[in-house]
Amino acid sequence: QVQLVETGGGLVQVGDSLRLSCAASGDAFSGYYMAWFRQAPGKEREFVAATTRVGGFTYYDDSVSGRFSIFRDNAENTGYLQMDNLKPEDTAVYYCAADSKPLNTATMRSWADYVSWGQGTQVTVSS
Question: Alpha-carbon distance 1 to 114, whole Å?
Fold first, then answer.
């Protein structure tokens, strides 16, 4: 299975932008669905966005739709999460996840359906 490493987190101000990266190794990234989840202190891990193996379909949680964009470069074995117009409620540890089995919009939202995870990267949005 693929190994994942996230980078790009940091401390930003309200309204700023950040781009998170998810570097994959160990297997062909193009064979995996990819998603981003996040977990704030004291809260459960929640779905943010997901995309299919070649990025032809993207799916977002309502809380980030229109502000975040998930995309991937399979030639570079890297996935991305572009986050614009950040809000304090976006503060969390962000995790990249991947799985090789086909997923639908229901299973894309379920963290239990992903077998590969990164270590997470902290995003803090200050007001």
Answer: 11
Q: How far apart are CA 127 and CA 117, in angstroms?
A: 30
- Residue 27 burial (CB < 10 Å; 0-12/13-18/19+)? middle
Q: Which residue has the higher pLDDT, 1 or 38?
A: 38
pLDDT band (50, 70, 90) for residue 62? very high
At residue 13, φ and ψ (nearest 5 deg) are: -95, 160
| Conformation bin of residue 22: beta by default, left when phi > 0, alpha when psi is -120 to 50 | beta
Tell me the torsion sign for CA atoms 97, 67, 53, 8: negative
Task: Name the band, by pLDDT with cuts 50, 70 and 90, for residue 107.
Answer: very high
